[in-house]
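Entry 12.
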Amino acid sequence: MDELFDIVEDETLSLDDDNNKDSENNNEEIVEKKKASVLEKYGENLSTKVYITNPAIARDNEIEKTILTILTPDKSAILVGKAGIGKTAIVEGIAYKIQNNDIPNAIKGYDIIKVNTSQLLGKYTSDDGTEELRINVLLKEVENASNTILFIDEIHTLVIESRNSGIDFVNALKPALSRGDIKVIGATTLDEYNQYLIRDKAFLRRFEKIDVEEPNAETTVKILMGSYPRIEKKTGVKLAYSSFVIENIMKFIVNMTSEYKRVYELGSRYPDNALALLSKAFSYAKFDNSEFVTFKHIYKAIMNCQSVYSDVVKKEAEAFKVEFKDFLEKENVDLNDY
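Predicted 3D structure (tokens):
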């Protein structure tokens, strides 16, 4: 009788082992399927990104136009504007609104996935060993997801890579765009739009062109005022002056990086060039192991600014000494050291 119980117990253990193995195999299959997502592997989900502040300050008009286009059947959006003026920030602004449910119901809960054309080159091998072009796999995933918007920065590279790689990205996208099965937000400069995209009328018919203008000086000051908390968070360094003083610092930076002071065709535009100068002041503070950005660090950033002409740097440095003389004296900044 005891032997019978031993046999039954052995059989039960064997069954349990088999069930556990089946469960493990199923789990492995789920993991493999999850790994097989081209969107997850090659894309960045802007809708789950952590935003310290609104990334698209003073861009409500462009955001509204983009959303209206996305809501229009069989239409996608293409943002066209100069380099450095915040086209990507507009798309991040839409993702920020999705996070905060400040968005039309039709696209609530949507994922905005940023992909680069270079990441879609080549083939993708599925779990069963079959090979397929990455672009085709990605398009199928987006169609099946139905709540995903593709963001293709520098969308003109679709045309360039179609010529260079032998993979026709443009024609691969056309059918799904025409049916409205996928929604795309593209971004490019006006020069590259005219050079590469405008020739393909059939491709452009699927898109609504949204012009993105460079913000003016006043708007750029607002962008800097809204963005410096993000730089504080990233660097761990504080800009610990009053709001009035900080605003005056921002106005000085924006004035220094205005259009006719920039190195021709090398200096970026508002707001990127002003943000770069501000960020450099934080970098100098971090280099000095300082918890705070001081006027010394701002002055060093001004003296080492490369996006404006060298004679502009000299003039602006003198203007900085005059405008912020009291602070420089209070902080015992010896400007002869710089």
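Annotation: The longest helix spans residues 2-35. The longest strand covers residues 148-153.
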